[in-house]
Amino acid sequence: MGEIKIFGYIIIAILCLTAIVTPLMEAFFAYRERLMLSDALYNSCRVATEAGYNDWYMKNINAEVNITAFRDAFAETFAMSFDLDDSPSWTLSANVGTFIFKSNAPNAYNDCEVVLTFDRKPPNPDNKVITVVTAAATSEYKFKNAYMRRVSNIIYAPPRVPYQLKCTRKFTMEVIN
């Protein structure tokens, strides 16, 4: 009879530990995905910054951005990092461009929205034009554990407020001479 009691306590302890460890592991995975999103945004901006310089303006030491070249280089690099659709939808209005990337692996990632803002600074005392590009990515986190998915659906019942991964990067494009 004593062995059954001990076995029962062990089962209860395992269930309690599982209830504690599962959310901690999910928090670790969410943090990991946020880091991956931030790193992908950083790398994509670096590649796009190099591709996006408008050569004609560089002769005058001005950093004018070629939005089409920047957009294409950014989209290709960002899509490769998360296995996203190669041809995302793109809208541009008043120097603010928005990408909507669809996921090719819907079990692993949700769709991602990236907003690019191109801010052209007036000439500084050196008489150079500087362009500041701000990239902000937002994606709904896809819970890995079935238990956590169930809990999130209960907690975030309609109107649903999802757990979102957000990160922002700012790049200054200038010609140093």
Q: Overview of this structure, please?
A:
This protein is of the alpha+beta class and 177 residues long. It has one domain. The chain contains four helices and five strands. The protein has helices at 2-52, 55-58, 67-82, 146-155, and strands spanning 89-93, 96-101, 112-121, 130-140, 164-173. A five-stranded antiparallel β-sheet has the order 1-2-3-4-5, with helices on one face. Helix 1 (2-52) packs antiparallel against helix 3. The N and C termini lie far apart (85 Å).
Set out the fold topology:
Layout: H1 2-52, H2 55-58, H3 67-82, E1 89-93, E2 96-101, E3 112-121, E4 130-140, H4 146-155, E5 164-173
Antiparallel strand pairs: 1-2, 2-3, 3-4, 4-5
Essential attributes:
5-stranded antiparallel beta sheet, 46% helix, elongated, 24% strand, 177 residues, alpha+beta
Give a quick rundown of the structure.
The chain is α+β, with helices and mostly antiparallel strands and 177 residues long. Helices cover 46% and strands 24% of the residues. The protein has one domain.
Structural class: alpha+beta
End-to-end Cα distance, whole Å, is: 85 Å
As laid out across the biggest beta sheet, the strand order is 1-2-3-4-5
Radius of gyration: 23 Å
- Strand count, sense and closure of the main sheet? 5 strands, antiparallel
Basic shape? elongated
Low-pLDDT residue intervals, each spanning 5 or more residues? none
Assembly state: single chain
Order of helices and strands: HHHEEEEHE
